[in-house]
Request: fold
Amino acid sequence: MKKYVSLLLLVPMLSFAQDVEKAYRSKEKEEYHNDWVNNYKPWEPMDINEIQAYKNPFFEVKEMKKYTPYKGSEEHQKYYHKSLTSKFKASPELASKVDNKQIVKYEKKGLMEAIVYKRYEYPFANEASIDVAYSNNGGESWTFYYTGITHGQPLCLKSRSKTPLFNEQGDLQLEACLLRQISQPTRGYPLDYELVKDGLLLTIDLESLRKDSDGDGMTDIVETWYMTDSYDIDTDGDGITEDLDMNPRRSGLRSDKTAIFEHLINYEFTDTLLTIAPDVCYTSETTRTVMIVTDNADIYAVQPKSNRIIMLSAEEYENMRKYYQPMRKMNVSPLFKVDEEEESYLVSIADDSGIWEFVVKKIDDGWKMDVVAIGIF
Ligand SMILES: [Ca+2]
Ligand SMILES: [Ca+2]
Ligand SMILES: [Ca+2]
Reply:
């Protein structure tokens, strides 16, 4: 149970004010941090053979004979399409979802139009997701799809290529190459890469792009990203379908400690936490998605209010993080018992903007919560 993943947690917490630490000593917390330090593995690049053997789970990637050679650092170039300006004016939805300076490819073929574009999932994301805006009525209405591809490692798409975006079948094709990430991720900074294999053609067939095997409103590609079951409309079996579930991967019985985690992930840092179950909330078009890696069963039954929470076990996270996943992460610590005090715990939460540490003490109808430290990144 000690193998909680805590990526951002440790380092900032060490700088907390000494007097606070003295006031609330916790052997459990010290052991947890020592364990983290002892098990810390520095970042290293992926095995080059693994990148060479890359196969996209949804789309065909094949070698080309004649291709546009890769040019260093083109993965970070921005492309502006002047011809799209009128489309953006005509469709507020298009303008709100697509950044006109992050277009990878745009093409019009008869009534079909497609924009392949880079989308940054959140402000501090290292790399962009590749998405597609597609219209089959001459740009009157658009549908937006996530391709499951992160621009960079391993696939880099070439904006400069002359290969037409639409192939003869009306599917999308893009010149690509395989890159290996050679710099350590730093918050909000683009990564450095080296070329592993050039001259590839990626075919994004529209059928695979749209496929929703279980018909729950989320494509198989999106479900792979969220690690939900693409053949089950309700992965966690709580009666709320995947597309509406704010906590789609986990369900469980509420414990009295669930309320603590609920308040933390909803950023409700109030004095008194009542242990009553809150109203059920559902996702909307604008709901942000946040990943939490935890093996702590007390958190499973939380009802998030504003963020969709994708909860992974430490083992699941280890297995999936081979390639950079553009998802906001939130670090929630376990409850560390305060030494020589009954029902009193230290707990912290960290996200892209900072870290908050609290002491929570059991009271008659819930918990009393006090901030002990705040660190802003
Ligand atoms: Ca689905
Ligand atoms: Ca599903
Ligand atoms: Ca569910």
